[in-house]
Design a protein that fits this description.
This protein is of the alpha/beta class. It has nine helices and eight strands. It has three domains: 81 residues; 132 residues, Trna Endonuclease, Chain: A, domain 1, CATH 3.40.1350.10; 47 residues. The protein binds zinc ion.
């Protein structure tokens, strides 16, 4: 904006100077009663004006093509900013609660053609969230929706116990972030498959997450779902004890169901 105004002022001053010069030439030309200087002055003025008019548009178009043009900018800015509002896969996964994360993984494997038997939620202590069936193969899966920590040896060991309890031989452990080096070594020794944050992004792409209704319905949920009974949850406040006054998501079926989730993520609009 400032630049274009500057150019206009510059042009006006130039034109004024030229007009004054022209007027001077005309005045002196008439005084000397000679036609030749007068014609020369007019010719000189016309040439300058013609050169200026030729130069100015060329200068302006060069500016707009380099992207520095002030006129083109307001049209480009909204187009560039619009996709930035779209959240990345990682951001969307981070925004989920652990139960949504578990259901999302179950949905992803279903979309990939696996049969999925969900065990988590109602039986969270079992150490297995769901079982994948691929033909005759049964694969127990556990999801760790840890936003800040990497999954360590302890969790792999616990998962190995759960696999053994279920009478199975192998399993798949899924982490939102990553696994520690020791955890990876232990998993490798016991044939436990690990899926980390990078693998998750790949999995999401494989099921075309942006245009997949089953995936989108979980990512865009506007209600919290109870991990124990799948009923809707409501915001409640702790009434007694150390945490009195704290808010949390409680099952709408309370006291029949005591399902609860921490109030860590606000509901999406
Ligand atoms: Zn419930």
């Amino acid at each position: 904006m400032a630049r274009s105004r500057g150019n206009t002022v510059e042009l006006a001053i130039t034109q004024l100077v030229i007009l004054l010069l022209g007027a001077g030439a005309v005045f002196f030309g008439l005084r000397r009663a000679s036609v030749v200087p007068f014609i020369l002055a007019i010719f000189f003025l016309c040439s300058i004006l013609a050169v200026l008019k030729l130069l100015k548009p060329a200068h302006a178009s060069r500016k707009s093509t380099t992207g520095n043009g002030t006129i083109a900018q307001p049209q480009i800015v909204p187009e560039v900013r619009a996709p930035a509002k779209k959240r990345s896969i990682s951001d969307q996964l981070q925004a989920l609660d652990w139960y949504q994360f578990e259901r999302l993984l179950a949905a992803i494997y279903k979309e990939k053609g696996n049969e999925v038997e969900r065990l988590g939620g109602a039986k969270p202590d079992g150490g297995i969230d769901f079982i994948l069936r691929m033909g005759l193969i049964e694969l127990p899966v556990q999801c760790k929706h840890w936003k800040s920590w990497t999954v360590g040896v302890k969790e792999v060991r616990e998962f190995l116990g759960a696999i053994k309890d279920a009478g199975l031989e192998s399993g798949r452990l899924i982490a939102l972030k990553d696994f520690s080096r020791d955890a990876r070594a232990l998993a490798q020794r016991h044939n436990v498959q690990l899926v980390d944050g990078k693998d998750l992004v790949k999995l999401m792409s494989e099921v075309n997450w942006e245009n997949n209704p089953a995936i989108q319905s979980i990512l865009n949920e506007t209600t919290k779902i109870c991990p124990q009974c799948d009923a809707e949850m409501v915001l409640r406040t702790v009434e007694r004890g150390r945490r009195a006054g704290e808010r949390f998501w409680g099952c709408s079926q309370f006291p029949k169901c005591e399902g609860a989730l921490p109030l860590e993520m606000p509901l999406k609009a």
